[in-house]
Design goal:
Two copies of one chain form a homodimer. By secondary structure, the first copy, chain A, is α+β, with helices and mostly antiparallel strands. Chain A has a domain of 257 residues: Beta-galactosidase, Chain A, domain 5 (Distorted Sandwich). Chain A contains 19 helices and 40 strands. In chain A, strand 35 and strand 36 form a beta hairpin. The longest helix of chain A is centred in the middle third of the chain and has 21 residues. The radius of gyration of chain A is 25 Å and the shape is globular. Chains A, B: It comes from Paraglaciecola polaris LMG 21857. Chains A, B: GO terms for molecular function: carbohydrate binding; peptide-N4-(N-acetyl-beta-glucosaminyl)asparagine amidase activity. Chains A, B: This is Alpha-1,2-mannosidase. Chains A, B: InterPro entries: 6-hairpin_glycosidase_sf, GH-type_carb-bd, GH92_a_mannosidase_put, GH92_N, Glyco_hydro_92, PNGase.
């Protein structure tokens, strides 16, 4: 382990900016961060339970920033609100599995379920689920960054979990009996995931290795592991409850019961490393990351890694509740994309094969339809050194499949959402100087996305919009393709590709074709150019209409690259503002089959889903920016609560949280690919954003007098009034002071 | 490509014997054999259709010796007699897939189905199977080693197939239309195999790559491929018949239709390389093995590789039919174990992970319950240089799982048959000097097999036999475990492990415990030592009785390591011979649920299955060896026919064929782990066995006069009478002359 001597409290290299860390990829295992007590205290503001209730779909378990392992409890329920394995409404546990999705609308992962228990396995699992089910209470449960703890009275065990980047570490303290057992269940799955082949092998009386090959949302997901215990065990394999002898088991679904006998009050520590490549990879990961059984040491390191991340945003304010919401949002913003490669650089590619690269760290879990909006821009400020790896990961995906990822789940393209939103992420990274990939290579990959012959992309190119009679979700696709094309055009221009620039710039204007002046909405057209009939702006239906998880009210605003152009379609600022006001003030009633994704309603504005996330900031570019501030504050207050049921919709792999982070800071990437941030209204008295090269960008709120109406009177950047209510990424990264005067 | 200058007609290194080739593994791609016209003519004696009818379960397609690829036609039927994908009774084809099992009783593989066709895919596949079905006639079908050809009149295409070690090469000559298409179907599966994830990607208009992950008999089988064509194509992906756009497809089942349009009379050549590790591996394999599109060149090389193998046994005789049977049996003996690693040494291990070794060539498909008997001993004579790689492959399997393979299908333990018969194969290799693995390592692996706590092996150790009330197939297991233990004891003695020698020698005598003097049969005992009641020596039932795919008549003889001991149980040679005579002469009626495996009956002798294969040679160790000769000739004549329905039972990955090869030569490894061959009766006037170091072992039949009764009067080895009717492996390998006088 290398010990970095950190400048001040932190390593320069820990904060982003390729220039300072150009030659190495980020490996948190090589960092031994030194953090101040202030930073450690910041951890106390993170409540991992926020979002675990309602539709938030977050998980409360132990994880390090962007870690491969999310070691977290799993409830028996398989309902929609359990896609993360856990919902706060539950009080039964099946155990602790090692991989979890944060905030998704579809379930998968939950690999390698581990459950401490007592009694006879088959008796305990003799229920409808065929699994051991154990009661717990939130009163005896706690979680903080890198740590989770629960008491399982049925088992008389105290369970504690922590994690490194690629390993989960369990500490089980059994008491009052001499029957300490641990179940490892590879057949456990949820949603439409299922194991298709599993393997386990006992290497010695402390060590087990294995794999779980599953298919589901992720079509082909191999997960390899090693589990090592600090106490010796005897063991019994099972094949769906049927005992199987042998030093190994190789079947569709398998379990093993490890019997530790009488170890009362001696903590049983298990360290479990994963690899998506091989058992040898898991072994190497474990050896590098957890060379001992010192649970507290691992826990402390996990906390330090989180402290480093959170300390990048130093909040000075007395609003404790807002700080909990803010730091928890930061925490949820730094869970994914997940580390996907082994410590030796090996990774499982989208071609189903192992590869190795020392050049970059492979990430997976790109929920791009969600995260291109605010999460990836947030990472360009806070974790710039990871952006290169993420871009390189997407480019490797392109090398493996011929396309950039759209929704990459463990190196499988799920194609679950629309758009080619790797494009804005890559373009943004390029212009912010955060990728080392040659721009010509980037451009070819972007162009391949835009020239696909599926999902109506070819129709879009042919007709100038996606015809509704030829393709579902035609309006949403037209609008999102147009935005992505704007980003391609931006890069084309920079690379002096005039023809491409013209071509994609033209496609970027396609939104105009679908604006129906009569109704004032983006509305579908058939291939003959006629408006789709029976139009209702409040109508929704899942995956059958012209709009993706939304209606015309929600999608009409999706022109982040040309707000002026959109205003002009409405006939100018006044009618535009009138419509925008109505969006928030109109009745929330929607007819049709309303997906639970469409939540967090203010009028027809639905903050619980992504298409509208930029909309409140459109006010910022008008003469009535105070209306935006009002809505931003309303959304911050009502859609984000300091409570398990605190998120108004799926956190969607951090996008909901990233919106909050930006909106609390006081600015937002309305167009996430133009390097600009539009001002909103800051939540705190002061936030100091720690930046590479020892720079700091400070956001301050000051009162001009005692008569403040709560709206921003003026914003100054380094003492000068902010132009056009917009600051640039460069403004932020150079360091300085943004002062909002109320 | 290295060109070996071969001594005489053949490379010394091509024949076996570690001493001559100690530093390299065998890679047929590096050989450019020079063969004589005589050797090429020998190919004409191989009829790959033998065994494709009835229950033989062989396939007629193109393959090189021990090749990874078996490119062969697949019929629509899924019956038991189609486990190889093909049965001669059929007249419809689905296409040509790249992997096939030869002679097994369970189906799997059939990866990457390719079908040339014309017309609209969906129309053509609009039938119950959902697949294109094309008629063919045996009149327009032919096969020879390394080559298969069939006309498909429905498609107006002439299809020709050939193969390298890791590639299949197709040549399709379309005529009379301008609609040349090729389907590649990754969802195609048979038996309980099924694809769980597939991927295809078009790299350019000549090239496609992909994978097929399947589960079935083999729990987890990834197969990667690259397909490259000599003509450009346009393409359409399908997901179970539903068109899918995109440069790639990633789903449970997928197909692609490649459209070549008007290429009438220009041969379409496709070269398809496999890898069990990665797409990159398949690419490397293709580049190394088929760097061009010269079908005839590849075909010629395949023929040369076969000529080299067949020329190891140079038959001089006028019985053309017997020569066809003999050379076809040799051909079927050299199909497996299959090459399993990539050209760069990478292989998929039994731990589900990729590994790499330059030290040995990895083989898979070890049907050991069948092949330990005669196939592996045959390889020690004919392909000694491969034996080290096979032992190393089994040892790698041991490293990966903790156990040697029992029935290894694509690096998955199927546990489909009983016994730990890697043991005799390894012990035999050790004593014949054909493995470089340290004997201590070998011994630990053998011992792990014998000390398992499953399949009654632990009961066997505890009770001295497998109690019938505690374990199924208890008699068969007791007998086979005892034999395997004898082999372990042999190695223990050589390694001066006196305690182990005593222990396993004692277990080797366990057969005595189950001999029921009253009935004269091996008979089950309960754990209390009582005979199992309701005993009938003719009773069979699949996997529920004391006998494995057999009855007491068939299993009573399984004491290959102590024939004298078995005789003594009967009370001496006379009653032993009386019983042996009765075995062949008694009624063939069996009561119970008779498995089709129990075929090839002479009395209760069932040559179509393996347990009795050594039995005719037991006569050779008595004073009535002529009775054995009579039965051997009867079996050679009636159980092996020069006909598609020519095998009396499953070829079982070459074991049935290897029996024939030995039995035609005139000797057989009654005990396949003692380095001895018991004499039978030779089929031919003369066979010259080409051996390493330019040695030749000649077997001659001579008549002592015109009054021969057809029985062997005398056998001499290098002019001296053969002692005990047995010759040693060393006798053979030193070269010399074995003369049978009739």
């Amino acid at each position: 382990m290398k010990k970095h001597i950190l400048a001040g409290a932190f390593s320069v290299c820990a904060f982003g900016g390729l220039t300072s860390c150009a030659t190495s990829t980020v490996d948190d295992n090589n960092l031994e961060p030194v953090v101040s007590s202030f930073d450690i205290q910041t951890l106390g503001y993170v409540d991992p339970f926020i979002g675990t209730g309602g539709h938030g779909h977050t998980f409360p378990g132990a994880v390090v920033p962007f870690g491969m392992v999310q070691l977290s409890p799993d409830n028996p329920s398989k309902g929609w609100d359990w896609t993360s394995g856990y919902n706060y409404s539950d009080n039964q546990l099946l155990g602790f599995s090692h991989t979890h999705l944060s905030g998704t609308g579809v379930g998968d992962l939950l690999d390698v379920l581990v459950m401490p228990f007592r009694g006879e396995y088959n008796q305990r699992a003799d229920n409808d689920l065929g699994r051991i089910v154990s009661e717990y209470s939130h009163e005896n449960e706690s979680a903080s960054p890198g740590f989770y703890q629960v008491s399982l009275p049925d088992e008389q065990v105290e369970a504690e979990l922590t994690a490194t980047e690629r390993s989960g570490v369990h500490r089980y303290t059994f008491s009052g009996h001499d029957d300490a057992k641990v179940l490892i269940d590879l057949g456990y799955a949820q949603n439409f995931d299922k194991s298709v082949a599993t393997f386990m092998r006992v290497l010695d009386d402390h060590t087990l290795v294995g794999y779980r090959i599953s298919t589901g949302w992720s079509d082909f997901q191999p997960t390899y592991f090693i589990a090592q215990f600090n106490q010796p065990f005897s063991y019994q394999f099972y094949r769906e409850g049927e005992p199987q002898a042998g030093p190994f088991i190789n079947t569709e679904k398998s379990e093993v019961v490890l019997n530790f006998g009488d170890i009362a009050n001696q903590p049983l520590v298990a360290k479990v490393a994963l690899s998506y490549v091989s058992i040898d990879g898991a072994k190497q990961n474990l050896a590098a990351e957890v060379p001992h059984f010192d649970f507290d040491n691992i826990k402390q390191k996990a906390q330090q890694l989180w402290a480093v991340q959170l300390a990048k945003f130093k909040v000075t304010d007395n609003d404790e509740q807002a700080k909990r919401k803010f730091y928890t949002a930061l925490y949820h913003s730094f869970l994914a994309p997940q580390t996907f490669n082994d410590i030796d650089g090996s990774y499982f590619g989208a071609d189903g094969s192992a590869h190795n690269s020392q050049e970059f760290k492979r990430y997976s879990l790109f929920s791009l339809w969600d995260t291109f909006r605010a999460l990836h821009p947030l990472l360009t400020i806070s974790n710039g050194e990871r952006v290169n790896d993420m871009v390189s990961s997407m480019m490797a995906f392109y090398d493996e499949t011929g396309l950039l990822p759209s929704w990459d789940l463990m190196a499988n393209e799920t194609d679950v959402m629309i758009g080619y939103h790797a494009v804005p992420v890559i373009v943004d990274a390029y212009f912010k100087g955060l990728t080392k990939v040659a721009p010509e290579q980037l451009f070819q990959a972007l162009k391949a996305s835009a020239m696909q012959e599926r999902f109506g992309i070819d129709l879009f190119a042919k007709y100038g919009y996606v015809p509704s009679d030829l393709e579902v979700e035609a309006v949403s696709k037209t609008l999102e393709y147009a935005f992505d094309d704007w980003a391609i055009a931006r890069l084309a221009k920079a690379l002096n590709k005039e023809k491409d620039y013209q071509y994609f710039s033209q496609r970027a204007q396609s939104f105009k074709t679908l604006f129906d002046k009569q109704t004032g909405f983006m509305r579908g057209k058939t291939k003959t150019g006629d408006w789709v009939q029976n139009f209702s702006p409040t109508h929704v239906d899942h995956r059958t209409t012209d709009y993706t998880e939304a209606n015309a009210w929600q999608y009409t605003w999706f022109v982040p690259h040309d707000v002026n152009g959109l205003m002009a379609l409405f006939g100018g600022e006044a009618p535009f503002l009138e419509k925008l006001d109505t969006l928030f003030s109109t009745d929330s009633f929607m007819e049709g089959d309303v997906s639970p994704d469409i939540s967090g309603l203010i009028g027809q504005y639905a903050h619980g889903n992504e298409p509208v996330h930029h909309v409140p900031y459109m006010y910022s570019l008008t003469s009535q920016k105070w209306k935006g501030e009002q809505r931003i504050k309303e959304i911050r207050d009502t859609m984000y609560r300091d409570d398990p049921d605190g998120l108004s919709g799926n956190d969607d792999v951090g996008q909901m949280s990233a919106w909050y982070v930006f909106s609390a800071l006081g600015f937002y990437p309305l167009n996430p690919a133009d390097g600009q941030y539009v001002l909103g209204t800051p939540q705190f008295e002061q936030v100091d954003i720690q930046l590479p090269k020892n720079k700091t960008f400070t956001v301050k709120s000051v009162l001009s007098g005692e008569t403040s109406d709560g709206y921003v009177k003026q914003a100054t950047l380094n003492g000068k009034p902010v132009n056009m209510n917009t600051i640039s990424h460069n403004d932020v990264m150079q360091g300085g002071e943004l002062v909002f005067t109320f």
